[in-house]
Write a structure and sequence with these properties.
The protein has 721 residues and is α/β, with parallel strands linked by helices. It contains 28 helices and ten strands.
Amino acid sequence: MGQDRVSATDARRLGTFGGVFVPNVLTILGVIMFLRTGWVVGKAGLQGALLILLIANAITLLTALSLAAVATNTKVGVGGAYFLISRSLGLEVGGSVGVPLYFAQAISVAFYLVGFSESLQGVMPGVDVRVTASAALGVFFIIAWVGASLAVKAQYLILVLLTFSLASFFTGYTPVPDPAQNWAPAYGQGHTIWTVFAIFFPAVTGIMSGVSMSGDLRNPSVSIPRGTIAAVLLTFVIYAAQMVWLSLNADRSDLVADSLIMRRIASVPSLILAGLWAASLSSGLASLVAAPRTLQALSLDRVMPRRLAKGIGASSEPRVALIATALIAEACILIGDLNLIAPVITMFFLTTYGTVNFVAGVERLVLNPSYRPVFKVHWIPSLLGALGCVFVMFLINVWATLAAIVVIGGIYGFLARVRFRTAWGDVRSGLWFVATRSTMLRFEASRQHVRNWRPALLVLSGAPSTRLDLIQFARWIEADRGLLFLAQVVTGEWEKLLPRHQGVKQALQDFIKDHGLSAFGTTVIADDFEHGVATLLQVTGLGQFQPNTVMMGWSEDAVRQAAFARAVRRILELERNLIVFAEAEPDQQLDPVIDVWWYAKDNGSLMLTLAHLLRSNRRWHGHRIRVSRIITDEAGEGAAEEGTRELLAGFRIETDVRVIVSEEPPLEVIARASERSEVCFAGIAVERIAEQDNPLAAYADLVARLRGNVLLTKSWHDLKY
């Protein structure tokens, strides 16, 4: 949010040409064009070289199209690619890509400047690479410190040098006797089209240089698409023309052996060196200008320390971030040898390209109503671009790819644990919506069977902080096998309670999040408790994803009230199972037993299933389930035990069986036999569902005498028990 406010107040000065087109062109027409394109033509032949260029540029063009689509769908703020990714896939994904992207940009500054110094050393052997690169960094630091507009002006000078260099190359003409001999590939041992492709591909990257200037553009949504696509198309033509001209003016052995073959062909050879240096310096300057802006965006979103986003003085230029970037670049220059980390830099850039493609493709694929880009791209090209980036990453360097994946995954894990709260929506909600919609429709159309029953508990939690034991037991019974709904009924006059309703809902949602519950929260306003419960049961859930069981807490006062009794009646009439929970007395030494008191089959099977789900939790693993039956005839004890075991065998649940012979009232027997059991499931007898009946009042004495946790249970299928 802070990032958006800052970007809105920045004085945006740059247009399409200076802010996007020029940085992209100068970064794409880089060192590889001068030092490696001839080698590519020599190895792959003109035929293979053009095919390599076509495939590589296709991936870059697909990325440019995706970038154009995403950029025209939203108001682009500071941070370029990071801003677009984070606003589409969320801060965790944006940060996990943005942090490596920043370091890749910062290290690239050193990479280009060391490359410039080494090429300069070839002409002047006495030059010290580290000193020269550090001096160039100092000059570029001053340019970037003054501001992006001065950096763009400096790039215009570099563009002029590059133009003269290319003009010198294309006006030179030293034709070979037989140009056809350069047509077919001649890879030689150790090379294939894909190894040559891997070496050439970084030449066509660089389209993020213009995007990184998004905070300085007058109209980013217009400039980014136009400038990026124009740069890709123009550089494709230049590279294709260069390959053709090389094949016409040099034989294969010279193309492979001479890295500066362009210098020999050019009409003014010294301009090729000037162009090479211009390419190196322009890429370094572009990276030094872009990297602080990526860091500024990360800092404004608090992914990186906030102080790094600040300017110095009245300027909004990211000068603190610029200092940090220059220090990183200087440290890498002092190391000198960057060959080891160069592949990882490429991986981070390719990861960014692939993610942009993925964002554009998925946003279109899930038909997100808010995804309405001015520049429209079908999801197929975007996802092909994403797959192409992944393919190229593994092609270039498998180990560097795996290293990049590990780094990005680690950053994502850290940011996910921090659990950033952001006010902007992202594509993940669209993905979940499409997947959920499809799954729910398929589930709704499927035939449900009692053997597939899962607990979908509607817990009447009231103020949840006062019902922690009730909610914990509901979690144990649900056991991550079904659904859990926490519900709150607010009773009273509508006009008085409506202003409080949103606050009550938010408090319930906060409770669910703070306690890490996998649950849905819902609240209703009703005239009384009975109507509130009836309303909840009719509106909670969707289709077959509705509560099948209501769980409420025991209260001595509530169970004696007529409204509570009527709510129980409504629950059973609406064909929902009922559980009334009373927590154990504190500080009791209880037996590790889960008692199930069996009478009717439907009610008994429900209680046994709930007991089995309860024991599936680690907290209850050591407890045995004991099924108890009461009979009045001692002669039938053996038959009753055998019949019970046969009945329970079909449930495939490990249980103990106990038959108690007694003529006492059942509740008296239960109170005595399960007094010290840690959990006791007992059925609720409802012989008549009538307005005057209060079926739970009779259980007050039982609940008072049992020391453990009590779950009074009623299956709606068995209303005659």
